[in-house]
Amino acid sequence: MSETVKLDVGGTIFKTSRSTLTKFNGFFKTMLESDIGLKIDESGSIFIDRSPKNFDLILNFMRDGDVVLPNCELKLKELLVEAQFYLLDGLIELCNSKIELVEAPKIKLRFIESDEQFLQILAVQQKPMLIIEFCMVGNDMSIPYNFNLYEFMEKYSHQFDIYFQRLSEDEPSRKWKARIKWKPTENGYYSQFPHNLRINRGGRIIRDATFLERLEKMIGEFDEYLKKQRNR
């Protein structure tokens, strides 16, 4: 058999190399090295009675040992079925890992809509409350530069009850800010957001801090406050 192999997958023709098809243990390696189940038609194509829908991804995995997977759960599961048919253990593992990620519970944003709601939340507070005040552009949140909202929530949701509150239209700066409210400490704790924080390097101010840097500065100050409270 020549180095170039022509495959007829469910009526669609694919061309690839023999070395690609035999790179990994599985359906094709077994078929080509043993001739078991080898069906070659009059055009010289090996007929595979499968859907061609995801076969380009199957081939790309066999070429590179990796492949960019779809984000859609249904498409991932369709690809997994094909990977199982072709006995590609590496691709099966990739698909299962991505499916677990896609199926993982999504973090839901919690919003404070009124002062009454804020007081109700405060009354049953179990953890410090971190309130992120956001602004909108049209119908969407105007996300600050370099701020991955969901990564931040995954990192800090064990420490804080995180809520979002829309900035008033009358707010002069119209920039995101935040505050921490924690009532169990003496007289309660109410943070100040470091609006004017700047980043220094070598004794020189090089830039204003990003929203995330200001936010984590505020959280660090709160952590120090709690340590002092515990050491009293």
Verbal overview:
The protein has 232 residues and is of the alpha+beta class. It folds into two domains: 4-103, Potassium Channel Kv1.1, Chain A; 115-230. The chain has eight helices and eleven strands. The chain has helices at residues 18-21, 27-34, 55-64, 73-85, 89-103, 115-123, 149-156, 211-230; strands spanning 4-9, 12-17, 46-48, 129-134, 136-137, 140-141, 161-166, 177-182, 189-190, 198-201, 204-208. The protein has a four-stranded mixed sheet with strand order 7-4-8-9, covered by helices on one side. Helix 4 runs antiparallel to helix 5 (89-103). The longest helix is centred in the C-terminal third of the chain and has 20 residues, at 211-230. The termini are far apart. The model has no long low-confidence stretch (mean pLDDT 86).
Task: Please render the helix and strand layout as text.
Elements: E1 4-9, E2 12-17, H1 18-21, H2 27-34, E3 46-48, H3 55-64, H4 73-85, H5 89-103, H6 115-123, E4 129-134, E5 136-137, E6 140-141, H7 149-156, E7 161-166, E8 177-182, E9 189-190, E10 198-201, E11 204-208, H8 211-230
Parallel strand pairs: 1-3, 4-7
Antiparallel strand pairs: 1-2, 4-8, 5-6, 8-9, 10-11
Helix pairs in contact: 4-5
